[in-house]
Amino acid sequence: MSSHSILKWGIRFYITLFFLYLFTPLIIMSAATFNDSRFPTISPWRGTTLKWFEELWQDSGMWQALGNSAIIAAGVLLIAVPIGVACALFLSTYRGNGKNFLYGLMLSPLLTPGVIIGISTLIFWRSLGVSGGIYLTMIAQTTFIAAYVMLMILARLQRFDRTLENAAFSLGASHFQVFRRILLPYLMPAILSAAVIAFLQSFENYNTTLFVKGHDTTLTIYIASKVRTGLTPAVNALGLILILITILFAAAYEVKRRHEARQAQINPETDSESIAGKQ
Amino acid sequence: MDSSVHLDNVMMRFDNFVAVQQTDLKIESGEFFSFLGPSGCGKTTLLNIISGFLDPTEGTVRIGGQDMRQVPANKRPTSMIFQNLALFPLMTVAENIEFGLEVRGVRKAERRKVSERLLNLVALPECRDKRISDLSGGQKQRIAIARALAVEPRVLLLDEPLSALDLKLRQHMRTELKDIQRKTGITFIYITHDQGEALTMSDRVAVMSAGKLQQVADPMTLYRTPATPFAASFVGENNRIEGQVVAIDGTRVTLDCGDLGRLSGHTHDTFRLGDKALLFIRPELLTRRTSMSDNCFTAQIRELNFEGAYLMMEATPLKSQHRLRIQLLSDMNLGDVAPGNLIIFGFAAEDAMIMSGARDV
């Protein structure tokens, strides 16, 4: 066997191992959904059933928690995206002193442990008479999620050609028109991905939320509490549904991307033909 | 309509760096006016002051007689074509052209009429729904012109818009720009470091160096009678020879040029005997002679470049370190014109310009 094929097989083996490491837990978890056992396990297999989906369907606490998570995530999205975009715009144009300080200030919640963000948010707002709950959770999560948004927008802004703004300005556009017609459409893809990231970050957050949730419960908190009070495969059923939804979105995105890539490939060809035809 | 541009005592300083020195200039209505200079000479700064992107440290800009001090860039009767063209990549060709009208609230049907007229003017009517990324360099160039013209500016500002194009296209666009300027009657203010562009298109050219206007003149005057040593060496090719004044006869001055001997030329400056001076003689005005006389020297040919209609050579006069550039018509009987050979060259005193060396920058 040549060293080349050894390398090739080595890489294949490694990749297989890597994907097994990634996906085995998910596969086992999903499979346990269908096991007619009181515990989320695949051995012993006590028969195949769909009853855990039914139990999940009837779990009002879970639905309540899911609803809270969705409301919080939507609220975080609505607060964090405008703040993050505004910070990115400011930092990308501001040339004065203190720019690095402001940048550091925005990023510091990312470097602070989530537990500390949770506790300090709670202590601060308590002293003002605000107790934990859905709204405080939105505020606490926004502190670091806005920083994610800012980083994503800044990355796109770095590639923005500032002369486009001058060009629009010289054609008579007002500052607002320049923003709405030139800058905003350019930033839109980054804003949309930042919104998705913000939503997911909020949805899956546990450690910050734990301190500021008050009497409300989010999905992650609910699942964690179930681990203590007794987990049933109904949680696996929920996990499986979330995985399927994720796969569905990822697949839809990929199909759309390939479609666009194909379109982009077709266009230049037809163009060069039409030019050649004229000459 | 008055679309003249006046610069009254305009000066621009960034911190301690003076980008544009005190400048007074009147650009006539409907003129094709160029600022010519090397990069960093302040010409782009001047253009940004006229467009309103920069406020001058001192002085005022007037367009059509109207003071522009309180008028921001988006309210000035100017529009600009940028060096990188700055077409909006997310809009179609037509949307680009109509943008200036759209932000003014012009109706869609009206806008469409304008963009169709302009697409015809720049000879690209079939491109109206194309995306910017689908255009070639020359097409982008023309769309940028159409977009700038759509807002019916009184003054069009062009910041080296041809520099990204290849030579053939650049030459073609020169005639096209000049043509559009003639058709529209708009004042064109053109920025370039390419003297060929400035000379072929402009009614008048301002040569700039180190933030200062060196000379403002029509292309022919600029080429034939440069006012400063900088203008003499920047516009076209020129041989520069240093010397000391030994004789003055009206406008005719004779210099002692060391190992090149005594050479005469004409001048617009005043000199005293013993002053240091510079003599400029263009490569095409140095001609071949059969015998030695005044303003002649024997030189050895170092290098010979065939340029089609012309032959460009570098020659060193005997006992001298000078390398002179000489241009001969290549249909002449060239015979012994070959590297290493000794040939007698000379020039007429009225073809050589003599300038004071003190003003050299």
Automatic annotation (TrEMBL), chain A:
Which topology term describes how it sits in the membrane?
Multi-pass membrane protein
**Database matches in PROSITE patterns:** ABC_TM1
Q: Where in the cell is it found?
A: Cell membrane
Domain of life (superkingdom): Bacteria
Question: In what residue span(s) does the ABC transmembrane type-1 domain sit?
Answer: 66-253
Q: InterPro entries this protein is in?
A: Bact_Polyamine_Transport (IPR051789), MetI-like (IPR000515), MetI-like_sf (IPR035906)
Q: Which UniProt keywords apply?
A: Cell membrane, Membrane, Transmembrane, Transmembrane helix, Transport
Membrane-spanning parts: 12-34, 70-91, 103-128, 134-155, 183-203, 234-253
Q: Name one GO cellular component term.
A: plasma membrane
Name a single GO biological process.
transmembrane transport
Gene3D superfamilies linked to this entry: MetI-like
Q: Return the Pfam families for the record.
A: BPD_transp_1 (PF00528)
Q: Belongs to which family?
A: Belongs to the binding-protein-dependent transport system permease family. CysTW subfamily.
Name it.
Inner membrane ABC transporter permease protein ydcV
Originating species: Nitrincola nitratireducens
TrEMBL record, chain B:
- Domain (ABC transporter) spans 5-235
Q: E.C. number, please?
A: 3.6.3.31
Enzyme's top EC category: hydrolase
Read off the SMART domains from this record. Answer: AAA (SM00382)
Signal peptide extent: none
According to the lineage, what is the superkingdom?
Bacteria
Give the CC-aspect GO terms: ATP-binding cassette (ABC) transporter complex
InterPro entries named in the record? AAA+_ATPase, ABC_SmlMolc_Importer, ABC_transporter-like_ATP-bd, ABC_transporter-like_CS, Mo/tungstate-bd_C_term_dom, P-loop_NTPase
Write out the entry's keywords from A to Z: ATP-binding, Hydrolase, Nucleotide-binding, Transport
GO MF term set: ABC-type transporter activity; ATP binding; ATP hydrolysis activity
The question of whether Acetylation is a record keyword is answered with: no
Q: Mind telling me which PANTHER family this protein's record contains?
A: SPERMIDINE/PUTRESCINE IMPORT ATP-BINDING PROTEIN POTA (PTHR42781), SPERMIDINE_PUTRESCINE IMPORT ATP-BINDING PROTEIN POTA (PTHR42781:SF4)
- Its protein name is Spermidine/putrescine import ATP-binding protein PotA
